[in-house]
Protein backbone atom coordinates (compact mmCIF):
# COMPACT_ATOMS: atom_id res chain seq x y z
CA UNK A 1 0.00 0.00 0.00
CA UNK A 2 1.06 3.53 -0.55
CA UNK A 3 1.17 4.26 3.15
CA UNK A 4 3.09 1.13 4.17
CA UNK A 5 6.12 3.27 4.85
CA UNK A 6 4.24 4.94 7.72
CA UNK A 7 4.43 1.82 9.84
CA UNK A 8 7.99 2.84 10.75
CA UNK A 9 6.65 5.97 12.46
CA UNK A 10 6.34 6.44 16.23
CA UNK A 11 3.16 5.04 17.78
CA UNK A 12 1.75 8.50 18.51
CA UNK A 13 1.88 9.37 14.86
CA UNK A 14 0.24 6.10 13.97
CA UNK A 15 -2.93 7.34 15.64
CA UNK A 16 -2.92 10.15 13.12
CA UNK A 17 -2.67 7.71 10.27
CA UNK A 18 -6.30 7.86 9.22
CA UNK A 19 -5.90 11.60 8.89
CA UNK A 20 -2.87 11.36 6.67
CA UNK A 21 -3.49 11.47 2.98
CA UNK A 22 -1.95 8.52 1.17
CA UNK A 23 -1.18 11.04 -1.60
CA UNK A 24 0.84 12.31 -3.23
CA UNK A 25 2.99 9.48 -4.46
CA UNK A 26 6.13 10.17 -6.36
CA UNK A 27 5.57 8.81 -9.81
CA UNK A 28 8.18 6.32 -10.80
CA UNK A 29 8.99 4.43 -13.96
CA UNK A 30 6.27 3.29 -16.30
CA UNK A 31 5.62 -0.45 -16.07
CA UNK A 32 2.52 -0.96 -18.18
CA UNK A 33 0.20 0.96 -20.48
CA UNK A 34 -3.30 0.26 -21.76
CA UNK A 35 -4.90 2.46 -24.42
CA UNK A 36 -8.44 2.33 -25.74
CA UNK A 37 -9.20 4.43 -28.79
CA UNK A 38 -12.04 5.20 -31.16
CA UNK A 39 -11.58 4.60 -34.89
CA UNK A 40 -10.82 7.57 -37.14
CA UNK A 41 -13.12 9.61 -39.37
CA UNK A 42 -15.65 7.45 -41.15
CA UNK A 43 -18.53 7.64 -43.58
CA UNK A 44 -22.00 8.07 -42.07
CA UNK A 45 -23.65 4.85 -40.90
CA UNK A 46 -26.88 5.53 -42.71
CA UNK A 47 -28.84 7.89 -44.87
CA UNK A 48 -32.48 8.98 -44.35
CA UNK A 49 -35.42 8.87 -46.76
CA UNK A 50 -35.37 12.55 -47.77
CA UNK A 51 -31.55 12.85 -47.82
CA UNK A 52 -30.63 15.18 -50.70
CA UNK A 53 -27.14 13.65 -50.80
CA UNK A 54 -28.12 10.02 -51.31
CA UNK A 55 -26.56 10.06 -54.76
CA UNK A 56 -23.42 11.80 -53.55
CA UNK A 57 -22.65 9.21 -50.91
CA UNK A 58 -20.99 6.82 -53.34
CA UNK A 59 -18.85 9.64 -54.73
CA UNK A 60 -17.78 11.10 -51.37
CA UNK A 61 -17.40 7.74 -49.61
CA UNK A 62 -16.54 5.23 -52.33
CA UNK A 63 -15.81 2.55 -49.73
CA UNK A 64 -19.38 2.72 -48.48
CA UNK A 65 -21.34 3.59 -45.35
CA UNK A 66 -19.53 3.24 -42.03
CA UNK A 67 -16.10 2.84 -43.61
CA UNK A 68 -12.92 4.60 -42.52
CA UNK A 69 -11.95 7.57 -44.70
CA UNK A 70 -8.51 8.77 -45.77
CA UNK A 71 -8.86 11.42 -43.07
CA UNK A 72 -9.54 8.64 -40.54
CA UNK A 73 -6.37 6.84 -41.59
CA UNK A 74 -4.39 10.05 -41.14
CA UNK A 75 -5.88 10.62 -37.67
CA UNK A 76 -4.81 7.17 -36.54
CA UNK A 77 -1.36 7.55 -38.02
CA UNK A 78 -1.06 10.74 -36.01
CA UNK A 79 -2.29 9.03 -32.84
CA UNK A 80 0.27 6.25 -33.37
CA UNK A 81 3.04 8.84 -33.75
CA UNK A 82 1.88 10.52 -30.56
CA UNK A 83 2.08 7.16 -28.75
CA UNK A 84 5.56 6.63 -30.19
CA UNK A 85 6.75 9.98 -28.84
CA UNK A 86 5.10 9.43 -25.46
CA UNK A 87 6.51 5.91 -25.04
CA UNK A 88 9.79 6.30 -26.94
CA UNK A 89 11.83 5.39 -23.86
CA UNK A 90 9.41 2.69 -22.71
CA UNK A 91 8.79 0.57 -25.78
CA UNK A 92 11.44 -1.20 -27.81
CA UNK A 93 12.30 0.69 -30.99
CA UNK A 94 10.63 -2.00 -33.06
CA UNK A 95 7.53 -4.11 -32.47
CA UNK A 96 8.06 -7.15 -30.27
CA UNK A 97 5.13 -9.51 -30.03
CA UNK A 98 5.67 -10.29 -26.34
CA UNK A 99 5.67 -6.58 -25.52
CA UNK A 100 2.62 -5.21 -27.30
CA UNK A 101 -0.80 -6.77 -27.75
CA UNK A 102 -3.37 -5.20 -30.06
CA UNK A 103 -7.01 -6.07 -30.22
CA UNK A 104 -9.76 -4.58 -32.32
CA UNK A 105 -13.46 -5.13 -32.75
CA UNK A 106 -14.23 -7.02 -35.94
CA UNK A 107 -15.24 -3.99 -37.99
CA UNK A 108 -13.39 -2.78 -41.08
CA UNK A 109 -13.02 0.71 -39.62
CA UNK A 110 -11.54 -0.40 -36.28
CA UNK A 111 -9.24 -2.99 -37.85
CA UNK A 112 -7.97 -0.44 -40.34
CA UNK A 113 -7.65 2.14 -37.57
CA UNK A 114 -5.50 -0.23 -35.51
CA UNK A 115 -3.26 -0.87 -38.49
CA UNK A 116 -2.91 2.82 -39.31
CA UNK A 117 -2.16 3.56 -35.66
CA UNK A 118 0.55 0.87 -35.59
CA UNK A 119 2.05 2.33 -38.75
CA UNK A 120 2.56 5.52 -36.75
CA UNK A 121 3.84 3.69 -33.68
CA UNK A 122 6.35 1.31 -35.24
CA UNK A 123 8.94 2.46 -37.78
CA UNK A 124 9.02 -0.85 -39.62
CA UNK A 125 5.27 -0.53 -40.36
CA UNK A 126 5.50 3.13 -41.39
CA UNK A 127 4.29 4.29 -44.79
CA UNK A 128 7.18 4.98 -47.14
CA UNK A 129 9.38 2.42 -45.45
CA UNK A 130 11.69 0.76 -48.02
CA UNK A 131 10.03 -2.43 -49.11
CA UNK A 132 12.76 -4.74 -47.84
CA UNK A 133 12.44 -3.33 -44.31
CA UNK A 134 8.65 -2.99 -44.21
CA UNK A 135 6.66 -5.18 -41.78
CA UNK A 136 2.99 -5.02 -40.88
CA UNK A 137 1.99 -5.50 -37.21
CA UNK A 138 -0.61 -8.10 -36.17
CA UNK A 139 -4.02 -7.05 -34.87
CA UNK A 140 -6.20 -9.55 -33.01
CA UNK A 141 -9.95 -9.72 -33.13
CA UNK A 142 -12.88 -12.01 -32.36
CA UNK A 143 -16.16 -12.28 -34.28
CA UNK A 144 -18.60 -9.48 -33.50
CA UNK A 145 -21.09 -11.88 -31.96
CA UNK A 146 -18.43 -13.21 -29.56
CA UNK A 147 -16.91 -9.90 -28.53
CA UNK A 148 -17.72 -9.44 -24.86
CA UNK A 149 -14.85 -7.06 -24.24
CA UNK A 150 -15.24 -4.16 -26.64
CA UNK A 151 -18.92 -4.45 -27.52
CA UNK A 152 -21.49 -5.07 -24.91
CA UNK A 153 -24.43 -7.44 -24.65
CA UNK A 154 -26.80 -4.65 -23.80
CA UNK A 155 -29.67 -5.54 -26.06
CA UNK A 156 -29.56 -9.20 -25.19
CA UNK A 157 -29.08 -8.70 -21.47
CA UNK A 158 -32.39 -8.69 -19.58
CA UNK A 159 -30.85 -7.04 -16.53
CA UNK A 160 -29.41 -4.25 -18.63
CA UNK A 161 -32.84 -3.75 -20.14
CA UNK A 162 -34.34 -3.37 -16.70
CA UNK A 163 -31.70 -0.83 -15.76
CA UNK A 164 -32.25 1.08 -18.96
CA UNK A 165 -36.01 1.07 -18.45
CA UNK A 166 -35.52 2.46 -14.98
CA UNK A 167 -33.47 5.31 -16.45
CA UNK A 168 -35.88 6.10 -19.27
CA UNK A 169 -38.92 5.98 -17.00
CA UNK A 170 -37.37 8.43 -14.57
CA UNK A 171 -39.18 11.76 -14.30
CA UNK A 172 -36.18 13.81 -15.50
CA UNK A 173 -35.78 11.75 -18.61
CA UNK A 174 -39.48 11.82 -19.40
CA UNK A 175 -39.67 15.56 -18.88
CA UNK A 176 -36.73 16.15 -21.22
CA UNK A 177 -38.26 13.85 -23.79
CA UNK A 178 -41.64 15.55 -23.67
CA UNK A 179 -39.90 18.86 -24.23
CA UNK A 180 -38.56 17.46 -27.50
CA UNK A 181 -41.76 15.93 -28.87
CA UNK A 182 -42.50 18.86 -31.18
CA UNK A 183 -38.91 18.92 -32.33
CA UNK A 184 -38.96 15.20 -33.10
CA UNK A 185 -42.31 15.49 -34.87
CA UNK A 186 -40.87 18.21 -37.07
CA UNK A 187 -37.78 16.09 -37.68
CA UNK A 188 -39.99 13.18 -38.71
CA UNK A 189 -41.53 15.38 -41.34
CA UNK A 190 -38.27 16.68 -42.77
CA UNK A 191 -36.37 13.37 -42.69
CA UNK A 192 -39.18 10.92 -43.46
CA UNK A 193 -38.09 8.80 -40.49
CA UNK A 194 -40.23 7.56 -37.59
CA UNK A 195 -38.75 9.19 -34.50
CA UNK A 196 -41.39 9.94 -31.89
CA UNK A 197 -41.65 7.08 -29.42
CA UNK A 198 -38.69 5.33 -31.06
CA UNK A 199 -35.25 4.80 -29.50
CA UNK A 200 -33.40 8.12 -29.34
CA UNK A 201 -30.55 6.44 -31.13
CA UNK A 202 -32.47 7.07 -34.34
CA UNK A 203 -32.30 10.80 -33.81
CA UNK A 204 -28.60 10.43 -33.13
CA UNK A 205 -28.16 8.70 -36.48
CA UNK A 206 -29.65 11.70 -38.22
CA UNK A 207 -27.13 13.89 -36.41
CA UNK A 208 -24.33 11.53 -37.39
CA UNK A 209 -25.32 11.65 -41.06
CA UNK A 210 -25.49 15.44 -41.02
CA UNK A 211 -22.16 15.85 -39.24
CA UNK A 212 -20.40 13.48 -41.62
CA UNK A 213 -21.85 15.23 -44.65
CA UNK A 214 -20.93 18.64 -43.31
CA UNK A 215 -17.39 17.52 -42.50
CA UNK A 216 -16.98 16.35 -46.08
CA UNK A 217 -18.20 19.55 -47.67
CA UNK A 218 -21.78 18.61 -48.53
CA UNK A 219 -24.22 21.47 -47.89
CA UNK A 220 -26.86 20.62 -45.30
CA UNK A 221 -30.57 20.95 -46.07
CA UNK A 222 -32.05 24.24 -44.85
CA UNK A 223 -33.88 22.66 -41.90
CA UNK A 224 -30.56 21.38 -40.48
CA UNK A 225 -29.67 24.64 -38.74
CA UNK A 226 -26.94 24.86 -36.08
CA UNK A 227 -29.75 24.99 -33.50
CA UNK A 228 -31.21 21.74 -34.80
CA UNK A 229 -27.76 20.11 -34.63
CA UNK A 230 -27.34 21.36 -31.05
CA UNK A 231 -30.71 19.97 -30.02
CA UNK A 232 -29.86 16.64 -31.63
CA UNK A 233 -26.60 16.60 -29.65
CA UNK A 234 -28.55 17.23 -26.43
CA UNK A 235 -30.95 14.41 -27.25
CA UNK A 236 -28.03 12.13 -27.91
CA UNK A 237 -26.42 13.09 -24.58
CA UNK A 238 -29.65 12.22 -22.78
CA UNK A 239 -29.63 8.84 -24.48
CA UNK A 240 -25.99 8.15 -23.63
CA UNK A 241 -26.50 9.29 -20.05
CA UNK A 242 -29.34 6.80 -19.66
CA UNK A 243 -27.02 4.04 -20.92
CA UNK A 244 -23.91 4.75 -18.86
CA UNK A 245 -24.94 7.16 -16.14
CA UNK A 246 -27.26 7.16 -13.13
CA UNK A 247 -29.43 5.63 -11.85
CA UNK A 248 -27.34 2.56 -10.96
CA UNK A 249 -24.41 3.57 -13.14
CA UNK A 250 -22.14 1.04 -11.42
CA UNK A 251 -24.47 -1.83 -12.11
CA UNK A 252 -24.74 -0.82 -15.76
CA UNK A 253 -20.96 -0.64 -15.90
CA UNK A 254 -20.67 -4.23 -14.61
CA UNK A 255 -22.45 -5.30 -17.79
CA UNK A 256 -20.53 -2.99 -20.14
CA UNK A 257 -17.44 -0.83 -19.58
CA UNK A 258 -16.56 -2.51 -16.30
CA UNK A 259 -15.80 -5.69 -18.22
CA UNK A 260 -13.13 -3.90 -20.23
CA UNK A 261 -11.82 -2.12 -17.15
CA UNK A 262 -11.52 -5.47 -15.42
CA UNK A 263 -9.70 -6.93 -18.44
CA UNK A 264 -7.17 -4.09 -18.41
CA UNK A 265 -6.45 -4.62 -14.70
CA UNK A 266 -6.25 -8.37 -15.33
CA UNK A 267 -3.88 -7.86 -18.28
CA UNK A 268 -1.57 -5.95 -15.95
CA UNK A 269 -1.88 -8.34 -12.98
CA UNK A 270 -1.21 -11.36 -15.10
CA UNK A 271 1.85 -9.77 -16.71
CA UNK A 272 3.20 -8.77 -13.29
CA UNK A 273 2.47 -12.05 -11.65
CA UNK A 274 3.95 -14.19 -14.40
CA UNK A 275 6.80 -11.76 -14.97
CA UNK A 276 5.80 -11.37 -18.63
CA UNK A 277 7.54 -8.79 -20.80
CA UNK A 278 4.11 -7.39 -21.80
CA UNK A 279 4.27 -3.59 -21.74
CA UNK A 280 1.27 -2.37 -23.64
CA UNK A 281 -2.22 -3.43 -24.61
CA UNK A 282 -4.11 -1.50 -27.28
CA UNK A 283 -7.83 -1.73 -27.89
CA UNK A 284 -9.25 -0.35 -31.14
CA UNK A 285 -12.96 0.25 -30.70
CA UNK A 286 -15.88 2.67 -30.84
CA UNK A 287 -17.24 5.76 -29.16
CA UNK A 288 -19.69 3.46 -27.36
CA UNK A 289 -16.70 1.55 -25.93
CA UNK A 290 -15.10 4.75 -24.64
CA UNK A 291 -18.41 6.02 -23.27
CA UNK A 292 -19.00 2.76 -21.41
CA UNK A 293 -15.46 2.88 -20.03
CA UNK A 294 -15.96 6.49 -18.96
CA UNK A 295 -19.19 5.38 -17.30
CA UNK A 296 -17.34 2.63 -15.42
CA UNK A 297 -14.72 5.14 -14.27
CA UNK A 298 -17.35 7.71 -13.26
CA UNK A 299 -15.86 10.05 -15.88
CA UNK A 300 -18.63 10.45 -18.44
CA UNK A 301 -19.21 14.18 -18.76
CA UNK A 302 -21.70 14.54 -21.62
CA UNK A 303 -19.10 14.80 -24.42
CA UNK A 304 -19.09 12.21 -27.16
CA UNK A 305 -15.54 11.04 -27.89
CA UNK A 306 -14.40 12.42 -31.26
CA UNK A 307 -12.69 10.25 -33.89
CA UNK A 308 -9.38 8.77 -32.70
CA UNK A 309 -10.09 9.84 -29.09
CA UNK A 310 -7.83 7.81 -26.82
CA UNK A 311 -8.18 6.94 -23.15
CA UNK A 312 -4.91 5.80 -21.59
CA UNK A 313 -4.05 3.94 -18.38
CA UNK A 314 -0.45 4.33 -17.25
CA UNK A 315 0.79 2.01 -14.54
CA UNK A 316 3.90 3.20 -12.72
CA UNK A 317 6.00 1.76 -9.94
CA UNK A 318 6.44 4.09 -7.00
CA UNK A 319 9.92 5.52 -6.84
CA UNK A 320 12.66 3.79 -4.91
CA UNK A 321 10.80 0.55 -4.69
CA UNK A 322 12.17 -2.64 -6.17
CA UNK A 323 9.13 -4.58 -5.06
CA UNK A 324 6.93 -6.01 -7.80
CA UNK A 325 3.90 -5.95 -5.57
CA UNK A 326 0.83 -4.35 -7.06
CA UNK A 327 0.44 -2.35 -3.87
CA UNK A 328 3.32 -0.13 -4.96
CA UNK A 329 1.93 0.68 -8.36
CA UNK A 330 -0.12 3.71 -9.32
CA UNK A 331 -2.46 4.26 -12.25
CA UNK A 332 -2.71 7.61 -14.02
CA UNK A 333 -5.33 8.24 -16.65
CA UNK A 334 -5.16 10.49 -19.66
CA UNK A 335 -7.70 11.39 -22.30
CA UNK A 336 -6.60 12.60 -25.71
CA UNK A 337 -9.60 14.01 -27.53
CA UNK A 338 -7.76 16.77 -29.34
CA UNK A 339 -4.62 16.17 -31.37
CA UNK A 340 -3.56 19.82 -31.20
CA UNK A 341 -2.81 19.87 -27.49
CA UNK A 342 -1.42 17.75 -24.69
CA UNK A 343 -3.70 14.96 -23.51
CA UNK A 344 -5.87 15.80 -20.53
CA UNK A 345 -4.83 14.16 -17.29
CA UNK A 346 -7.91 12.59 -15.67
CA UNK A 347 -8.43 11.51 -12.08
CA UNK A 348 -10.60 8.71 -10.85
CA UNK A 349 -13.27 10.34 -8.67
CA UNK A 350 -12.10 9.98 -5.07
CA UNK A 351 -8.45 9.49 -6.00
CA UNK A 352 -6.81 12.66 -7.27
CA UNK A 353 -3.61 12.36 -9.31
CA UNK A 354 -1.79 9.07 -9.68
CA UNK A 355 -4.00 6.55 -7.92
CA UNK A 356 -2.48 3.66 -5.93
CA UNK A 357 -3.50 0.45 -7.67
CA UNK A 358 -5.11 -1.05 -4.57
CA UNK A 359 -7.23 2.07 -4.12
CA UNK A 360 -8.05 2.12 -7.83
CA UNK A 361 -9.25 -1.47 -7.56
CA UNK A 362 -11.26 -0.69 -4.45
CA UNK A 363 -12.93 2.38 -5.94
CA UNK A 364 -13.77 0.69 -9.24
CA UNK A 365 -14.89 -2.61 -7.69
CA UNK A 366 -18.62 -1.71 -7.77
CA UNK A 367 -18.35 -0.98 -11.51
CA UNK A 368 -16.48 -4.17 -12.40
CA UNK A 369 -18.20 -7.55 -12.82
CA UNK A 370 -18.43 -9.39 -9.50
CA UNK A 371 -16.32 -12.53 -9.05
CA UNK A 372 -19.41 -14.75 -9.09
CA UNK A 373 -20.34 -13.75 -12.62
CA UNK A 374 -21.78 -10.99 -14.74
CA UNK A 375 -25.34 -10.58 -13.45
CA UNK A 376 -26.94 -10.38 -16.87
CA UNK A 377 -29.60 -12.91 -16.09
CA UNK A 378 -30.22 -12.22 -12.44
CA UNK A 379 -28.96 -14.82 -9.98
CA UNK A 380 -28.52 -17.70 -12.42
CA UNK A 381 -24.92 -17.06 -13.38
CA UNK A 382 -22.59 -19.93 -12.54
CA UNK A 383 -20.04 -19.24 -9.83
CA UNK A 384 -16.44 -18.64 -10.86
CA UNK A 385 -13.31 -18.79 -8.72
CA UNK A 386 -12.74 -15.88 -6.37
CA UNK A 387 -10.53 -13.26 -7.93
CA UNK A 388 -7.14 -12.98 -6.35
CA UNK A 389 -4.21 -11.85 -8.40
CA UNK A 390 -3.55 -14.96 -10.51
CA UNK A 391 -7.10 -16.22 -10.83
CA UNK A 392 -8.18 -12.73 -11.76
CA UNK A 393 -7.62 -13.40 -15.42
CA UNK A 394 -8.95 -16.92 -15.11
CA UNK A 395 -11.96 -15.44 -13.33
CA UNK A 396 -12.51 -12.90 -16.07
CA UNK A 397 -12.17 -15.59 -18.70
CA UNK A 398 -14.60 -17.82 -16.81
CA UNK A 399 -17.05 -14.98 -16.51
CA UNK A 400 -16.79 -14.24 -20.20
CA UNK A 401 -17.06 -17.92 -21.03
CA UNK A 402 -20.09 -18.30 -18.80
CA UNK A 403 -21.58 -15.29 -20.49
CA UNK A 404 -20.93 -16.57 -23.99
CA UNK A 405 -22.26 -20.02 -23.14
CA UNK A 406 -25.31 -18.57 -21.46
CA UNK A 407 -26.02 -16.03 -24.12
CA UNK A 408 -25.03 -18.30 -26.96
CA UNK A 409 -28.27 -20.12 -26.29
CA UNK A 410 -30.20 -17.09 -27.31
CA UNK A 411 -30.45 -16.51 -31.00
CA UNK A 412 -28.21 -13.51 -31.32
CA UNK A 413 -28.64 -11.30 -34.27
CA UNK A 414 -25.97 -8.67 -34.71
CA UNK A 415 -28.48 -6.03 -33.68
CA UNK A 416 -28.98 -7.83 -30.36
CA UNK A 417 -25.37 -7.23 -29.46
CA UNK A 418 -25.28 -3.64 -30.20
CA UNK A 419 -24.42 -1.00 -27.74
CA UNK A 420 -27.49 1.19 -27.90
CA UNK A 421 -28.03 0.44 -31.54
CA UNK A 422 -24.49 -0.36 -32.53
CA UNK A 423 -20.98 0.84 -31.98
CA UNK A 424 -20.03 3.77 -34.08
C1 LIG B 1 -44.15 17.25 -44.26
O1 LIG B 1 -45.32 18.02 -44.06
C2 LIG B 1 -45.83 18.61 -45.26
C3 LIG B 1 -47.01 19.50 -44.93
O2 LIG B 1 -47.57 19.23 -43.69
C4 LIG B 1 -46.23 17.50 -46.22
O3 LIG B 1 -46.72 18.06 -47.43
C5 LIG B 1 -45.02 16.66 -46.52
O4 LIG B 1 -45.35 15.59 -47.36
C6 LIG B 1 -44.41 16.12 -45.24
N1 LIG B 1 -43.16 15.43 -45.55
C7 LIG B 1 -42.87 14.22 -45.13
C8 LIG B 1 -41.56 13.64 -45.55
O5 LIG B 1 -43.60 13.57 -44.40
C1 LIG C 1 -6.06 -9.01 -21.92
O1 LIG C 1 -7.31 -9.39 -21.38
C2 LIG C 1 -8.24 -9.89 -22.32
C3 LIG C 1 -9.51 -10.20 -21.59
O2 LIG C 1 -9.30 -11.03 -20.52
C4 LIG C 1 -7.69 -11.15 -22.98
O3 LIG C 1 -8.57 -11.58 -23.96
C5 LIG C 1 -6.35 -10.82 -23.61
O4 LIG C 1 -5.78 -12.00 -24.12
C6 LIG C 1 -5.42 -10.21 -22.58
N1 LIG C 1 -4.21 -9.83 -23.25
C7 LIG C 1 -3.03 -10.11 -22.76
C8 LIG C 1 -1.87 -9.75 -23.61
O5 LIG C 1 -2.88 -10.62 -21.67
C1 LIG D 1 6.11 -1.54 -1.21
O1 LIG D 1 7.38 -0.93 -1.05
C2 LIG D 1 7.92 -1.00 0.24
C3 LIG D 1 9.27 -0.29 0.25
O2 LIG D 1 9.18 0.93 -0.39
C4 LIG D 1 8.07 -2.44 0.70
O3 LIG D 1 8.53 -2.48 2.05
C5 LIG D 1 6.72 -3.15 0.60
O4 LIG D 1 6.87 -4.50 0.92
C6 LIG D 1 6.17 -3.00 -0.82
N1 LIG D 1 4.89 -3.68 -0.96
C7 LIG D 1 3.73 -3.27 -0.43
C8 LIG D 1 2.56 -4.12 -0.69
O5 LIG D 1 3.62 -2.28 0.24
C1 LIG E 1 -12.24 16.92 -24.55
O1 LIG E 1 -12.70 16.45 -23.33
C2 LIG E 1 -12.89 17.45 -22.37
C3 LIG E 1 -13.28 16.78 -21.10
O2 LIG E 1 -14.31 15.88 -21.33
C4 LIG E 1 -13.93 18.44 -22.85
O3 LIG E 1 -14.09 19.49 -21.92
C5 LIG E 1 -13.51 18.99 -24.20
O4 LIG E 1 -14.53 19.82 -24.70
C6 LIG E 1 -13.24 17.88 -25.16
N1 LIG E 1 -12.68 18.41 -26.39
C7 LIG E 1 -13.02 17.92 -27.59
C8 LIG E 1 -12.35 18.54 -28.76
O5 LIG E 1 -13.84 17.02 -27.72
TrEMBL record:
This protein's record includes keyword Transmembrane: yes
Signal peptide bounds: 1-22
CDD domains: HP_HAP_like (cd07061)
Molecular function in Gene Ontology: acid phosphatase activity; protein tyrosine phosphatase activity; receptor tyrosine kinase binding
Sequence intervals crossing the membrane: 389-412
Gene3D superfamilies from the UniProt entry: Phosphoglycerate mutase-like
GO cellular component: lysosome; postsynaptic membrane
GO annotation, biological process: lysosome organization; negative regulation of ERBB4 signaling pathway; negative regulation of neuron projection development; negative regulation of protein processing; odontogenesis; regulation of neuronal synaptic plasticity
Keyword Transmembrane: yes
EC number: 3.1.3.2
SUPFAM superfamilies (UniProt xref): Phosphoglycerate mutase-like
Catalytic reaction annotation: a phosphate monoester + H2O = an alcohol + phosphate
Record key words, sorted: Glycoprotein, Hydrolase, Membrane, Signal, Transmembrane, Transmembrane helix
Family designation: Belongs to the histidine acid phosphatase family.
Listed name of the protein: acid phosphatase
Gene this protein is translated from: ACP4
